[in-house]
Amino acid sequence: MLRTMLALACLLGSPAFAAQAPEAAQRLAQEAVIVDTHIDAPGILTEKWADLGNQAKDREFDYFKARAGGLDVAFMSIYTSPKQDEDGSAWQVANAMIDGVEALVQRHPDKFAILTSPGDADLLAQGGRVLLPLGMENGAPLGDKLENVKFFFDRGVRYITLAHSANNRMADSSYALEKKWNGLSPFGREAVREMNRLGIMVDVSHLGDASAKEAIALSRVPVIASHSAFRHFTPDFERNISDEIAKAVAAKGGVVQVPFGTAFIDPASAATTQARFRAVADFDRRNAALKAQGKPEESREAFDKAWEAAHPPGTSTLDQVLDQIDHGVKLMGVDHVGIGSDFDGVGGELASELKTVADYPHLVAGLQARGYQDADIRKILGGNLLRVWAEVEAGAK
Questions:
Q1: Which residues does residue 257 pair with via DSSP β-bridges, in sequence order?
Q2: pLDDT tens digit string along 194-253?
């Protein structure tokens, strides 16, 4: 009853999207445990502080939107870039983001709590709190020190995406045209074993296929793909997970978390995203050659501006997200599909009707309309991820 009252109060000051969903969908969104494994709020907090305990109009995640949409567990993405990996700043940047999440919780202990174990979720959620576990997107902050896995575990990190948009010390990126390791590096293998030992989920989103396959095979416990759409819809886009690798995740007991970003779920937008990475690689090669010759380098700002002018944002729909979920359920079974939206991480390029964390009731309504039973919807919304997290934690013990 308390939770329902909180949700209704939040709706009074929230976007109208959630209120437009059918009553049955709104009710289930509030009653189910919703776990979203990828929200990029921390990076924005370090760039420009927004008090997410209040209504933040320029953010896709804040407390009131979360309560309106029924979001219970919001993994905060601790993202660092390949450039920060190269210049050695990734460790500090990651710590600053974690500091920001901790500051948010300290300012609003009645609204947020950091979650480090699925077994604590019910207790910490009392009073309507939104729980904030941490997921590290890109293993760059580990540097080449295995002890940093334990360091970030102690700071609350509970999954690590081994690589992001470039090859690193641990694994190959799906975006890299040339792979470095064709699997995991020796350090990457050590890190996976240490993650298993401590109880950190291994995340294979963003990985090149060979790296993902080795990580899945090596892990003693289930792995996750924290925000990966299915390559079935985008055949030439390695960033999305192949059916073969998705089935390997499921066979290990893991879960694939479906994102809402247009660049992943819309075939034309995925092709544009892939083309951009290739164009950037060509740009970098040209500049490296110019630098070697002592000639002026091309402007990255001008390159970005020209690319954006020639490639306007694409669009995507709720139905495309539902198609992704349908495919995952058919391929792997309903116990191995979840959600990892990428809110606040894709520049607002999201499926229609899924524009903020207030909008999960639309997803619920869509699943109900496609014939999913409420028990299975609960699994997709969060039950599957919590099961995997608990198994990873138990494996560490």
A1: 338
A2: 999 999 999 999 999 999 999 999 999 999 999 999 999 999 999 999 999 999 999 999
- Measured at the CA of 157, the angle between CA 348 and CA 36, to 5 degrees, comes to 40
Cβ proximity of 265 and 232 under 8 Å: no
CA gap 397, 34 in Å, rounded: 26
What span, in angstroms and rounded, lies between the C-alpha atoms of 344 and 77? 10
The neighbour count for residue 291, using CB atoms within 10 Å, is 11
Give the residue extent of every domain in the chain.
2-266+315-396, 268-313
Q: Could you tell me which of 147, 122, 8, 137 has the C-alpha nearest to residue 72? A: 122
CA distance 270 to 210: 21
CATH number of 2-266+315-396: 3.20.20.140
User: pTM of whole model > 0.90?
Assistant: yes
Dist. CA 101–CA 96, nearest whole Å: 9
* 102: nearest Cα among 139, 72, 76, 70: 76
When pLDDT is averaged across residues 300-311 and rounded to a whole number, the result is: 93
> Could you report the per-residue pLDDT of 51-94, keeping only the tens digit for each?
999 999 889 999 999 999 999 999 999 999 999 999 999 999 99
